[in-house]
Amino acid sequence: MALRELASLEKYLGLKKPNKYSTQGDKKIPVLQNNSPPLVGLVTIACHLVKESNHQELLGDTADSRAVVQQWLEYRLTRLDIYTKEDIKTVLKDLNLYLQDKVFLAGNHVTLADILIYYGLHPIIVDLAVQEKEEYVNVTRWFDHIQHHPGIRHHLPPVVVLRNRIYTSRHR
Amino acid sequence: MKLFVSEGNPHCLKVLAALEVTGVQCGVQTVSHEEKVVPFLSRPALPALLLPSGQYLFSSNAICRYFFEANGQECNNLCNQWLEWETTVLQPALLQTLHMAVLQGKGSEASKVLQSPLNVLDQSLSKGNMSYLTGEAVSVADVVLWGTLHPVLSDSPSASSEHESVRTWFDRVAALHSCQSAAQKVLQGKGLQAMKSYVQKQPAPPSSQCRDAQPCNSSPAESEEGERVVSEEEMEAAVNTWSKGLNSTSLAADKQHPILPQEGKRNVLVTSALPYVNNVPHLGNIIGCVLSADVFSRYGRLRGWNVLFVCGTDEYGTATENKAREEGLTPQQICDKYHAVHASIYKWFQIDFDFFGRTTTEKQTEIAQDIFWRLHQNEYLVEDTVEQLRCEKCQRFLADRFVEGMCPHCSYPEARGDQCDKCGRLINAVELREPQCKVCRQTPVIRSSKHLFLDLPKLESQLEQWLDKSTSSGDWTLNAKQITRSWIRDGLKPRCITRDLQWGTPVPHPDFREKVFYVWFDAPIGYLSITANYTKEWEKWWKNPHQVELYNFMAKDNVPFHSVVFPCSLLGAQDNYTLVNHLVATEYLNYEDTKFSKSRGVGVFGDMAKDTGIPSDVWRFYLLYVRPEGQDSAFSWADMALKNNSELLNNLGNFINRAGMFVTKFFEGCVPVMDLQREDKKLLALVGWELQQYIQLMDKVKIRDALKHILNISRHGNQYIQVNEPWKKIKEGDPERQRAGTVTGVSVNIACLLSVMLFPYMPAVSQTIRDQLNAPQSCIDTMLQGTGTFVCSLSAGHRIGTVSPLFQKLEADQIEALKKRFGGQQPEDEPSNKKKTLQNAANAQPAVAAAAAVGVKATTSGGVDPEKAKQLTKAVAEQGDKVRALKAQKAEKDVVAAEVSKLLDLKKQLALAEGKNPDPAPQKGKKK
């Protein structure tokens, strides 16, 4: 999973030749092989790729926004990669409140935080019921925005955030 | 800029140290753990940093990073990598350690959790040969890791005795003045205990849950509630009841059909969601509706209520038409065929319907059309036009699943009428490019078609008024209330009640000829029409809300149709209909951690259960034992065998068999004279209390919870026999012989009570027990009256019948074979297992460390050894029996503990041999 995210990120960054990866341990932590010494960990590698690609702005353009980007990258690792049903609710509730007055997670343009939180949130959003999507409307709005941001979605299917059907599926 | 910290919070160590090391100017405020500093987080998160821009950072590492960057020290790759490792590996391990050490006082076990991360750190430090983690100068990584490790490494040098490089590095960082002062501020020299109040407020770390821990299956019966203290009054009351004897009048006389509501009785109408005819029901369907409804109606009859239980197959709709086309039969033939399949499955499961009907009947047409005309007259129907695809060759409008074409978004050529399988977008069938009729491959045309809609918004206020009353006075399950509330909250919209199909109840309105009712409108009317096929006086049940109480049983996906849509139809029809009083919805039953799936051949379907050789009663028992009541639960073969062997065989069956055998062997088959002593009276009171609990729970349809009290009674009984040893006393002098008689007599009477309480759950076993005891029929009518009356129903001199064992052991190899046959083991990368796998992965590391610590060869990568697993499964089962036997005999604590730890070791080895993650938390016990 993490490897596909990194492959998509590479495409988004416009990196010419794809890097070589492997994974480590049961958690399948990604390892970047063609670096000496090899780099371990999703966020570490992602930050490295961004620096390589000269898209430094993806890590934030002020000290404050750089810190906020790092904050959300850490959030991705601690809250989205390991969760229970109850956690999901808290995560969505908190993000919904946070995104109430924001277009992006940090600053005024898309950052690595948006990309990796979007990847991490995708399996959760896919499972949401229509009502829940409406309940977390700010998250849904942000999510839809990011999935339509050119070049980010790549390996993931788009999620329909609103549906309006005449016939609902039958009652069981 | 302001930094918020709290005392005794280990995360504050690093931020305070980082602040001082970097010399950044920033105000510090100490607040309590519970203070909500960050406005958008629902749980308090400390430390937190308010940035000059007004934004908040709420994790300690991001804060440390910020201070270092403000001081001109940016993170390089290596530094990033350490911080990520700290977040994902070290911190979780540390929190678990603190939890164990501070709250559970398990210092030595706790340090094992940290072994593996410390090994990693040690190797890296010794290989790198640098003073600090990322070079010769202190970096943010050093401060962060120091802060995390300080609580465990500062006090006990021994904790890192094997990790020389870690110790050297740690002492070097700890010697920094900034670190020392941070430690003083946060812990105030109190060490680990300073963190107690903080750790208490944190949720228990996830790694203390083992892979196979299914909270819902963790046998309700095994939870010990401690010894209940019985008062003198309770004992006296119990003895009074006991000596009352059996009722002479028989309440639950044989059923006289047709059952009709009676004046002065509690008239209870029970329905189970109508199973859809074209599928064989799986275990989840069975527990969700028919079985739960069966248990409740059997119980109701024992209580003396006047119960009618109806159900039937739901037969109209597209799915039946499809199936008919597939099998080359007519829809009617399909329905006939599968109706018989359903009926025979429910018969095998001993579902005691008063009537099991179907929806494709004259009565259905009559009643559905009557309700339709009433809604029409009362102006609750509105007309609207819908654009649809029509196949001219087949002469019909095409339902979504009958059209295929090119996706308008991604040009995938085989998109369905409702959704594209490739891009996942939802499609309106008329948007498809080059649409084709799936039956004849002709190109359909777009036609508009007039439809009727039920005007739910117009009925909303009536509905809400009724809902308020019904949900507050009746027993609605929590999920039923929640789902209903969310529907109402989202606002009701008109719902189309007609469809362009042939297989359905015809719409009688001349403008809508050739249309039928949409199944959601039609199917619930089946309850009424099925009752009408049972008795022509059906209206006494269905148009009689003052005399009749209606219980609907279903799985949660069916709730809105029973709580919102169908009540609206009935309210709008205005004919004094009986509306649901108690809506009982279950959650989902999973199969061995995955879903039941016919197409993948996963799971047990109704028709296969009898081929397993396991009796119907045992199936019923286990399904009810794991009934998804309040939360999802899972069916597991191993668990089923375990519950059969431990609860049915060793607890319940063992007790009833012993009681009967003592009468047969020591007293020539006649119940001996009972001279009640204090101890016996106490037991009567205890059993009486369990009986009361059972009745209270069953009255509220808590079927799974009530079962636990049956098992508690036989547990009390086993202890009672064990302590009094009648088999020894019988060989001694007269007073002892008399004592043996009393104990035997009381026990066999408890067995008789158990047979009555078991009746709703295991009807065949219940009957067998009463046959073996030759119990009078009236005991069934007596025991469950009022709040519960445990009377002496087998008095001295009563001759019992022939006693024989009730249950058989389920052997491990038998269960293994069944598991294989029904596709129990799913590959780990199955999508439905994804979340589970993530959670497991999170537990993997400490688990391996724990396993290594007890001297098990930890083969993490594919060390699956089926042969060894088989041996170990057997060993685990044997050891389990041994432990249970010891517990039942109330053996010495130390002895039991020693055997339990052996058992846990074996289980761990078994998990490893099976290639699973072993349970890392042997402390998951009953005592704190």
Oligomer kind: heterodimer
The rounded distance between the terminal residues' Cα atoms of chain A is: 33 Å
Number of helices of chain A: 7
Shape of chain A: globular
Rg of chain B (C-alpha, Å): 34 Å
Q: Detail the poorly predicted runs of chain A.
A: 164-172
Gyration radius over CA of chain A: 17 Å
Strand content of chain B: 5-15%
Question: Per CATH, which architecture of chain A?
Answer: Up-down Bundle
Distance between the termini of chain B: 43 Å
Q: Name the shape of chain B in a single word.
A: globular
Extended strand count of chain B: 20
Structure annotation, total helices of chain B: 33
**Helix percent band of chain B:** 40-55%
CATH fold naming of chain A: Glutathione S-transferase Yfyf (Class Pi), Chain A, domain 2
| Global structural class of chain B | alpha/beta
What is the topology, as strand order, of the major beta sheet of chain A?
A: 1-2-3
